[in-house]
Design a protein that fits this description.
- The protein has about 575 residues and is α/β, with parallel strands linked by helices.
- It has helices spanning about 40-50, 115-125, 135-145, 170-175, 180-210, 215-235, 240-280, 285-300, 310-355, 365-415, 420-440, 470-485, 485-490, 505-520, 535, 550, and strands at about 1-10, 15-20, 20-30, 75-80, 85-90, 100-105, 105-110, 445-450, 455-460, 495-500, 525-535, 555.
- The radius of gyration is 36 Å and the shape is extended.
- Residues about 300-305 and about 360-370 have low confidence and may be disordered.
Length: about 575
């Protein structure tokens, strides 16, 4: 369990904020000078908490505070209780990678964030093995959702602009599903991707070296092996006639191939020149259009209705369409020319090597040249053979890893099915919330394995979901149900922070707050910190609102009483 007790700074730069078990409200209120409640520092206060809990500095709003508005020397402090042990986390902007943690009576100064995170992970999950639990920061993800996540997903907890893949380890941990199995499958997906990319590159190398497709490359290797056997035999008998035939035929094929490539290159270059001549306004310029227009206009008198500008605009649209087509063709030609240049370079080099083995009159004349032929053939055969072996190895590795992944997915599926009672009880809790707030139970929750990189699909549907308001409410249902379901709460750290989650309609807001009032006694075993804007509450009928805002209010922020007491422009 982890519970926050106090947020403050050394030296004091903002009034300390105390927190208690159960519900805690951070309220933005209008005042005599302004009715607005945005920009008063509610989110920044949450960011200070998250900063002390070792959120990555570059992703934190704390990193965007200008030094002129807040000194980097100031130390932000957070008193917490971790599994009944008093703990203080201290961190400042200047030395953000060197936090200080006072755990019990022991003070520990860390040289890196990673070491500090490993320490907190070991203390938060002190009864479990490291491979059975999420990391401290990954666990904080669904407990302190980034406002930039826009509450669009129950599993994606981070700023949507970062495009981070969802980390399911904290969600699996809460439902009691094996994390090590999930991590193993995730690594298998990564290894398969890596091997597939390597295999694709090897395929390209094989086809470039052999000059034929992969399916024909093995036949080409067998032909090379046959040629090497004949050359070895000739070396033993000093008879080089057949070897000469091989080299001559190969050189002849390369010569034809080089000629074809050069012809194609010349044709493309001519076409490219023609396109370059056609680029621009080369047909009829605007002055000629004006002359023709005036002649027709004088001849037609009042019968012509079109303006000169419309005629020129029509001409321009035709020119633009023509240029678009020409530019697309130019791009295609340029790409083909690059490919031809590469092929020419390889073919020319190969042709030059083979011609070195032939004398001026043509035939091989001595044993040295015969050895040279043998050497070249051995190099080609060795390279192609090695590439084909490597390709087969990667292909086999992919098959093995895919089989292992399928087996692990099946095991994970059994693991999920084994938690059916937990999942059903969670769904019942969620549906009870749904019924209280929406007046029906038109929703469901399930966890299912899928053979994709996400591995598991957490599906929660509610009535009329898909809208901005209801998607946020869906996250509220999910997070609160984790606290109110006994099986998931047994694994829960007991902390939940929602910043600006209730950007919803008035009726949904009122019913959600009333639900929290109804369950306030159930939440005393944990801690729920919620930011609210009181201008939304002022529209509610006081008699309908069951939640006592003043009772749970821990700090009030206004335009005159901002969190840091000043206005600044984010970096």
């Amino acid at each position: 369990m982890i519970k926050i007790r106090r947020l403050y700074s050394e030296p004091e730069t903002f009034p300390p904020v105390n927190f208690y078990d159960g519900l805690n409200l951070i309220v933005g209120e209008p005042n005599s000078t302004s009715n607005k409640t945005n920009g008063v520092g509610k989110t920044l206060l949450i960011e200070f908490i998250n900063f002390c809990l070792l959120k990555d500095f570059k992703f934190s709003r704390v990193s965007k505070i200008p030094s002129s508005s807040y000194s980097s020397e100031n130390t932000i402090c957070l008193d917490v209780i971790i599994n009944e042990v008093n703990c203080t986390l201290k961190r400042n902007i200047k030395k953000q990678n060197e936090p200080v943690i006072i755990y019990g009576k022991k003070r520990k100064e860390f040289d890196s964030i990673q070491d500090a995170l490993e320490f907190l992970t070991s203390k938060l999950f002190h009864k479990q093995l490291p491979n059975e639990v999420p990391s401290f920061r990954s666990m904080m993800g669904p407990l302190i959702r980034d406002e930039g996540s826009e509450f669009k997903s129950i599993v994606d907890c981070y700023d949507t602009t970062l495009k981070l893949p969802p980390d399911l380890t904290p969600h699996l941990y809460l439902f009691g599903i094996k994390i090590d199995l999930y991590k193993k499958i995730k690594n298998l997906f990564l290894e398969i991707d890596k091997a597939t990319k390597t295999k694709s590159k090897i395929k390209g190398d094989i086809e470039l070296l052999s000059g034929v497709s992969l399916t024909k490359a093995k036949a080409e290797l067998n032909e090379m092996n046959s040629q090497l056997d004949i050359i070895k035999s000739e070396m033993a008998s000093l008879d080089n006639n057949i070897s000469y035939e091989y080299i001559r035929d190969e050189a002849s094929e390369l010569d034809i191939r080089i000629g074809n490539l050069r012809n194609r290159k010349a044709i493309l270059n001519i076409e490219l020149k023609k396109i370059n001549l056609l680029n621009g306004d080369n047909y009829i310029n605007d002055n000629e259009v004006v002359d023709i227009f005036n002649k027709f206009k004088s001849g037609l008198g009042t019968n012509i209705n079109k303006e000169l500008s419309e005629v020129i605009a029509f001409k321009k649209s035709i020119d633009n369409f023509q240029n678009k087509i020409l530019n697309e063709r130019k791009s295609v030609i340029s790409e083909e020319l690059k490919e031809i240049e590469t092929e020419l370079k390889i073919a020319t080099a190969s042709y030059a090597d083979k011609m070195k083995t032939l004398d001026i009159s043509g035939p091989l004349t001595n044993i040295k040249q015969l050895i040279l032929v043998h050497q070249k053939k051995v190099e080609e055969q060795s390279m192609l053979s090695a590439l084909l072996q490597k390709y087969d190895k990667e292909d086999n590795e992919i098959r093995v890893k895919k089989d292992e992944k399928s087996s692990c997915l099946l095991e994970l599926d059994f693991e999920v099915k084994g938690k059916k009672e937990t999942i059903n009880n969670f769904e019942e809790t969620m549906l009870a919330m749904h019924d209280y707030i929406f007046g029906n139970k038109k929703g469901y929750f399930e966890i299912k394995t899928i053979d994709r990189k996400i591995i598991l699909d957490f599906v929660l549907r509610i009535d009329d979901d898909g809208s901005h308001s209801n998607e946020r409410e869906k996250v509220f249902f999910y997070d609160i149900s984790l606290l109110l379901t006994s099986e998931t709460f047994s694994n829960h750290p007991g902390l939940l922070i929602h910043d600006n989650i209730f950007d919803v309609d008035q009726d949904t807001l009122m019913r959600s707050l009333n639900f929290l009032a109804e369950k306030s006694s159930c939440l005393l075993d944990c801690q729920y910190i919620l930011t609210l804007n009181s201008d939304k509450l002022s529209k509610l009928e006081k008699k309908q609102l069951k939640l006592d805002i003043d009772k749970y209010k821990r700090v009030t922020l206004t335009k005159q009483n901002r969190f840091l007491g000043r206005v600044y422009q984010q970096k």
